[in-house]
Amino acid sequence: MDWATSTSATCPGCTVAATVVAYASRYEAFGLPPLEAMACRGVVVASRVGALPAVVGDGAVLVPRHSLDAWVVALRPLVADPVERAQLGARAVAAAAELSWTATAASTLQAYRDAGVAV
Predict the structure, then answer these.
(1) What are the phi and psi torsion angles at 86 (to 5°)?
(2) In sequence order, what DSSP letters do the residues of 57-103 get, joined into one string?
(3) Per the domain annotation, does 98 fall within a domain?
(4) 28 within some domain
(5) Residue 6 counted as domain residue
(6) How many CB atoms lie within 10 A of CB 91?
(7) pTM (predicted TM-score)
(8) Is the confidence at residue 1, as pLDDT, over 70?
(9) Number of domains into which the chain is organized
């Protein structure tokens, strides 16, 4: 899936239908499920762990602590306010569009070149 060109037709139905996608995790190496949801205009609330802050950027709300109160504070306004959900959904799509396999391949190639590897 190319995050920049995904449409609701290519996105999982549950993600598109969800009011908010809550992604509670103790550790994340990358965070593909939140990224997939964001590419589908999903409103994501995720744990501030591992690579998630770098992956979601400002396209999701990050929860700093693993406590019920912290999750309630993050989720409540998004569940209650359709305008806030729409704004975060638009930011989510923009943030997801910044990540693509083409950009990843170009960055990887540049990293090899910067390390002096002839490619």
Answers:
(1) -65, -40
(2) GGGSEEE-SSSHHHHHHHHHHHHH-HHHHHHHHHHHHHHHHT--HHH
(3) yes
(4) yes
(5) no
(6) 17
(7) 0.78
(8) no
(9) 1
pLDDT at 2 over 60: no
Instruction: Determine the Cα angle at 68 with ends 64 and 73, to 5°.
Output: 65
pLDDT digits (tens, 9 = 90+) for 88-101: 999 999 999 988 88
Of 64, 84, 89, 63, the C-alpha closest to 74 is 63
What are the tens digits of pLDDT across the range 29-56? Answer: 888 899 999 998 899 999 999 999 999 9
| Dihedral sign of CA atoms 48, 21, 58, 71 in order | negative
Which of 53, 77, 54, 79 has its CA nearest to residue 64? Answer: 53
Confirm if 61 and 81 have CB atoms less than 8 A apart. Answer: no
- 61-75 pLDDT, tens digit each: 999 989 999 999 999
Q: What is the CATH number of the domain that holds 67?
A: 3.40.50.2000
